[in-house]
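=== RUN LOG ===
request id: a7f3
mode: sequence -> structure
chains: 1
length: 75
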Amino acid sequence: MRLPESADAASIPHWEDAYFQSEFTHAGGAARLTSHPEGFIGLWRSLAGRKRFLGRYLTDAGETLQEFVARGDER
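=== RESULT ===
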């Protein structure tokens, strides 16, 4: 994923674009992304039509969003 040059509130649309244009938003990969009993695809199916995201099924990424964004500035 190409990271936007800045990490301020004004760059949020650039972060959204970068994320949704990335190639790693699929169910593949070795990392366990969810603890949902039906896996990654089951999580998305259970979210269909909901207005709220069920965060209880996410696994620990080992860093906060703030840490992730700060690490992106180092690249």
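=== NOTES ===
The first helix runs from residue 12 to 20.
The chain is about 35% helix and 0% strand.
=== END ===
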